[in-house]
Amino acid sequence: MSFTITEAKRLVIKVGSSSLTTVDGGISVQALNRLVDACQKLRSRGTEIVLVSSGAIAAGLAPLRLDRRPQDLAAQQAAAAVGQGQLLAHYSRAFGHHGAEVGQVLLTVEDLIRRATYVNALRALEKLLALGVVPLINENDAVATAEIRFGDNDRLAALTANLIHADGLILLSDVDALYDGPPSAGGSPIAQVARTEDLNGVTLGPRGRAGIGTGGMVTKVEAAQIVTAHGIPARLTSAANAERLFAGEEVGTLFLPRGKRRGARSAWLAHLAHTKGRITIDHGAVSAVAERRRSLLAAGITEVTGSFEAGDVVEISSPDGEVRARGVSSFSAAEVQIMRGKKTAELAQELGEDYQRPVIHTDDMVRVEVAA
Ligand SMILES: Nc1ncnc2c1ncn2[C@@H]1O[C@H](COP(=O)(O)OP(=O)(O)O)[C@@H](O)[C@H]1O
Ligand SMILES: N[C@@H](CCC(=O)OP(=O)(O)O)C(=O)O
User: Fold this and answer.
1) Which of 22, 128, 149, 298 would be 339's cystine partner, CB 3.0–4.6 Å?
2) What is the pLDDT of residues 60-110, one digit of tens each?
3) What's residue 36's pLDDT?
4) Pocket test for ligand 1, best of 18, 52, 69 (most atoms within 8 A of CB)
5) What EC number(s) has UniProt assigned to this enzyme (predicted)?
6) Alpha-carbon span 156 to 256, nearest angstrom
7) Is 117 annotated as ligand-binding?
8) What CA–CA distance (Å, rounded) separates 180 from 355?
9) 228 among the known binding-site residues?
């Protein structure tokens, strides 16, 4: 399978700080304009794009007379608050040259963890796209604390691609491809990653220019894996290559989809929802649930920990403690405690017909990949 950008109807394009900044760390208007021109070519062919752009902190440095990225969180928040406004102004002006509007959407991890706000974010993005607006996403750095940060925009972009059912995720950085080792140490470029095993032996180093990017290659590969597990291909290359890429050239590294396309709800279950407890199951249940994709029945449950209510998300683990799935429990922890180990007929007899249902229905579960 390949990924033909020119045929994609909807793309999430993530650009890193390192591609938008000058050598002294401020925002490069020239680089930003080039990127917007390239994006606009895609849009003029009818492709919807959602732009996840880093660079708020970098853009806030000059106005605050800072010559480098500050170390303390409050100063980063302040730089981002000032810089995000500047970043939006640059993008609005650049897209405005092409007659296009930009709509800013700042997200915190909480927005995507709580189902109500996650559905809300989806609705806003869908509406913006329907109105022909370019959604410009960044983390809401001004209020993000160390604990609630997405950590990096690579992950945010991947989650957004899953959320809006994008046809592809484009990761634009300052490096033209994934290399089998840090490019500075003389690695070679990798054209395609078809399976997780293709990454065996690949050294993923930290960020490039000191103090500019945040995640290095690790978070980009993780982002690619988040989308490919949901049937969405990803391509990684440099922002300088954007024009060639959007014209259909196969530049950079292609990450092929591994799973079939899944709904936004399973992406939420797999990557975002907070788990409230853990259900440990026996070997027979592991094979039924994780391998044969059956619903989880009370009979296979050996242990329940945590305190959860019906409707909460729990982890399902094997007897040796390995998490094999996550799912929405139909019963509370107290109920599962009473039900565990009992057969369906027994449950109906002892507790009533309501308790014959699976503890977690297969449609309410996502399986966790385990290393071979
Ligand atoms: N195996 C690798 N292949 C490619 N780049 C790598 C690798 N390991 C580390 N890097 C570094 O990761 C950097 C990109 O990450 P980062 O600076 O966080 O970028 P961004 O600002 O685009 O998010 C590159 O400049 C490169 O030096
Ligand atoms: N949200 C921050 C950047 C976070 C981030 O992930 O940066 P990068 O690794 O350059 O994509 C900002 O706008 O400065």
Assistant:
1) 298
2) 998 999 878 888 888 889 999 999 999 999 999 999 999 999 999 998 766
3) 98
4) 18
5) 2.7.2.11
6) 19
7) no
8) 53
9) no
